[in-house]
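Researcher: We're reviewing a set of sequences before deciding which ones to prioritize for further study. For each one, I'd like a predicted 3D structure that I can look through quickly. This is HEAT repeat domain-containing protein. If possible, include the structure in token form so it fits the rest of the review sheet.
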Amino acid sequence: MDIREVLSGGDLRSIGHVDAVVAYVGNDPDRFSELMTGLTDDRPVVRMRSADAMEKVTRRHPKLLRAHQASLFEQLQIATQQEVRWHLAQLMPRMTWTEEEASGIVHVLTDWIDTETSAIVIVNALQAMFDLSAVHPRFHDELKALLESQLETGSPAVKSRSKKLLQKL
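Model: Here's the predicted structure for HEAT repeat domain-containing protein, in token form for your review sheet.
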């Protein structure tokens, strides 16, 4: 199976054959590596669907991310496509990060929260920061301030998630 070709076609409003790719990749590290190459594909639809499939595969098999941690950290910093960003935010808490790396992730996520127009990106960035702060408590105060700010200025979806996360802090 050529994963990139299976994920191509159509537009950004559909997930295409993501579920078939998720089933094909399973817990296979080589197939997951092939899936990872879709993040740098020239076609936005392939990048989006690759990120979606990665997120779905790693719900059950988060260890597959380990071999690609450095690459995903790099992708987090350079991704501009909102559909890729929201999935990258979901992936970050599934890996183990040093304090310095976590700080870099929080910096990027905070930037997205401040500048992104996609409510999905903002919600997933807030959730990722919440999850990371459970392991790296030094981000707790920064997260609390962001959540309180989003309660005032965020979209309805962002306000709802902010309220839920504040209740859990």
